[in-house]
Amino acid sequence: MSEKPTIEAYLKNIEEGHFKAYKCVDCGMIIAPPSGSCYGCGSSNMKWAEVSGKGKLVSFTVIHVAPDQFAEEAPYYVAIVELAEGTRVSARLLGFDPLKPEQVRLGINLKLDYEKGKSGATYLAFKPA
Amino acid sequence: MPLNNTNIVSAAQTKFGALTGVTLREIFSEAVDKATIHAGIPKKDIQAAFIGSFIPEMLVHQGHTAPLLLDFAGLKGIPATRHEDACASGATALRAAIMAIESGLYDTVLVAGVEKMTSVSTSKVTEALAAAADDQFESSIGLTFPGVFAIAAVAHMQKYGTTEEDMALVAVKAHKNAATNPLAQFQKEITLEKAMTPRYVAWPLKLFDCSPISDGAAALVLTSNEKAKKYTDLPVKITGTGQASASMNLCDRSDLTSFSASVDASRQAYKMAGLKPKDMDFAVVHDCFTIAEIIASEDIGFFKPGEGAKAVRDGITALDGDKPINPMGGLKAVGHPVGATGVKQAVVIYRELIGDAGPNQVANHDTALMHNFGGTGATCVVNIMRRADL
Ligand SMILES: [Zn+2]
């Protein structure tokens, strides 16, 4: 946990099912996805932070027309999720019928999960808490 | 202080659409000829060129395009630089030209934008366009371009009660205006029912909420006050300009119902011009998706946050409304050859302001605003233009 975080390691953590955020050493702000400088104080001094995995749904869409590498997975949800720690991430949303998006309510509680895509990659994901 | 030395003296675009049988440089050269020699401006008068083009490397396998395009268009030798800011490439090229004139470095320059998109498959274009989003954190989980605007639409619908039908009405208006614009890709009106056809691209955005894949070019000649009279009796002045950037990632933005770069660039442009939204007779905004026009109409201050959809419903933004928006049909129906769009928007404003818009002429045409944004809204350029006789 003491090494300087990198984007490569951030993506590898997701791939391995162990999501970690960045944390600003100087002001404590939690940051994800990675940024080279803190949104709170401008510092570029970062370390890793474990997160609670709790979040809220901010907004979402259902992708019907997908790029080739994701075409087999469509339709699928992509959401903006606000973590309990305050930062927001883009992630797949699980646990809802992609053909009934009108049933999804913004603001609902979510918890961290992962999705193994047909492309072989593992995506950061959230499901209803 | 308003800018006072930048004059548009000529403006032209090619037909937008699937232009088969012509390549990037030929489309470019057609727009340049229309804006120069066909308008009585000798090419030898052009001292420098500012080119907007997004991804010719991926679409037509051509880099270092500025000198190549200029050579083909008969302008070899002068300084030529390409500007790449996704869908705002044309407007950032225009801004560089404005700065070049205002600084006194040049008297007369060319601004041109071009994109050739239909020579590769749709999936290849989709993949190429995705380069304007964050590859590592957005595109990698399957978020697409329409998806980004769909997420903004869902947030806007939730906060303000905007509906899918409101968005469809923007498409209906765009097609109605484009029906009388011979340079448009779609010269055909559509019904509300057709616009509501539930062919989802990224829910809640449907096929008719999205601008098409297009080829096309547009060009402007800008010149100083001293030289302007040599070319036309009725120049159009650019009196205010603004540009801002924002986080590329949607998740790094605190408000999804507004684009901060649009708000910031508008404020700069209004302040520089010494004008307010109420002083604008009409606007040309970046309607890559129908929701983008609704949000832009709020971000540029024409309507309060959340009231953009009502303005569409009430016909305020129609060609004959109080505040026409995209009077010639916008990106939605005229087409969106990415690098050409920002330049074409200035062409539309020029034609409207000098009273040369034919059946698409707006009633009041003294002062107008253009709003061009790049990618997911991470770049925005806003310019305010007025007829020089005011
Ligand atoms: Zn900090």
Question: Would you write up a description of this structure?
Answer:
The complex is a heterodimer of chains A (129) and B (390). Chain A has two domains: 7-49, no CATH class; 54-128, OB fold (Dihydrolipoamide Acetyltransferase, E2P) (Beta Barrel), CATH 2.40.50. Chain A has one helix at 7-15, and strands at 21-24, 30-31, 46-49, 54-63, 76-83, 88-93, 109-116, 122-128. The relative contact order of chain A is 0.19. The model of chain A has no long low-confidence stretch (mean pLDDT 96). With 129 residues, chain A is mostly beta strands. The two termini of chain A are 27 Å apart. With 390 residues, chain B is an alpha/beta fold. Chain B has two domains: 7-121 and 213-236, Thiolase/Chalcone synthase (Peroxisomal Thiolase, Chain A, domain 1, 3-Layer(aba) Sandwich); 144-211 and 237-387, 3-Layer(aba) Sandwich (Peroxisomal Thiolase, Chain A, domain 1), CATH 3.40.47. Chain B is 36% helix and 17% strand. Chain B contains 14 helices and eleven strands. In chain B, strands 3-2-4-7-1-8-11-10-9 form a nine-stranded mixed β-sheet, sandwiched between helices. Chain B has a two-stranded antiparallel ribbon with strand order 5-6. In chain B, helix 1 (24-35) packs across helix 3 and helix 4 packs across helix 14. Chain B is globular and about 55 Å long. Chain B starts with 6 loop residues before the first strand and ends with a strand. The model of chain B has no long low-confidence stretch (mean pLDDT 97). The interface between A and B is medium-sized, with 36 and 34 residues. The structure holds zinc ion. The site of zinc ion (ZN) has 8 residues of chain A, from loops.
